[in-house]
Each structure stands twice: as C-alpha cells, then as structure tokens.
C-alpha cells in the first residue's frame, strides 16, 4: 500500500522504503501452495528487504507456507531483521503437518561474538510458528532480550525440557502450542499476566503474582 502511493508524486517514490513496519504475507490456502508461488513470494520478500532503507524496524512479519527448502532465504530475512534492531519479529510458516519439514533456527545467531551481538536488546515480541526452535534457543532469547514481553512458539518439535524462570524477566505473555516433544515446562516469572500452555507430565508454575489469564490445552 505504501509503494502504491509512490505513483501519486515523484517525491513519494522512495518514501515507502523508510517505513518502520514490514508486514509481508499473501492470502493463500494452506496445503495448496505450489512451488512457483513459494518462489515468487521469496523473490518478493527479497526485493522488499533489498530496497528497505529505514535503520530500525518496529515490526517484521513474514507469513506464508515455507519450509526448510527455503532456509537460505529465511536466514537472510533473520539477518535483515536483527541488523535493523527489530522490536517485533513474527515468522509464521504454516501449512505442514510434519514438523520435520520446518525450518530450523540457525545456531550462528545464538552467539554474542558476531556482528549482530547487540541487536537483540530491542526485541519485545517474538513469534515463531511452524519453525523449529530448541530449549537453548529460547533460553538465549530470554537471557539476551531484556525488553522481551511476548513469546509465542507453535509447532516446534525440538523443545523438550523448558525452564522460563527469572525475577528480572519482563515477559508478560507466553503461548506454547503443538510442541509435541515437550516433556516438562517450568515457569517462574513475576511479570507474567497470561499463559497458554499444553498439558504435560510435569508442568510447574510458581511465583506468578500478576497472572490473570491461563489457558491449558491438550496439544
């Protein structure tokens, strides 16, 4: 929509490139996406981020049926988001029943020695759907994103025994869903106000004085 306005005036041609919010999604039917549609979507996103000029991002949302076959492009998108000190990062790659096809979050980002080492501190919202993250990935973000308030993870098969604990955490909303290999979850965060968690053999919730909403699901 921002790009379309550029036809109204030559002065507006490049204005859209400075927008602080990129919400990139296409209206498609899950499970019916052809390879050519994936190719076109990836090419479109790559074109947008190459043209984007804003030094920071309030939000970067990508929502489409993608998988590990698109991993190189997805990794570039992560690098782009972190380099712009993104505040809200949402990746939703819906469309697959088998989590083994999901994109795996790269370990190379989970280091404080690289060029992006200080770029996690601005993150307030993380949402990963149909994308595999591990216990260690989540622990890294909790420790290195001091402003993180909302964490959503749907469909990861790599989570097993997760601990989300710490009086210094600012986390307010936690949503875990369809993480079928999760065996245990421990939560101890005074700032938590809402929870959506699965029924587990070991589910321990303590020290949550601000909790006002809780949803326990069977997945």
UniProtKB/TrEMBL annotation:
Gene3D superfamilies in alphabetical order: Ribonuclease Inhibitor
F-box/LRR-repeat protein 15/At3g58940/PEG3-like LRR domain mapped to chain residues: 113-206
Name the UniProt record assigns to this protein: F-box/LRR-repeat protein 15/At3g58940/PEG3-like LRR domain-containing protein
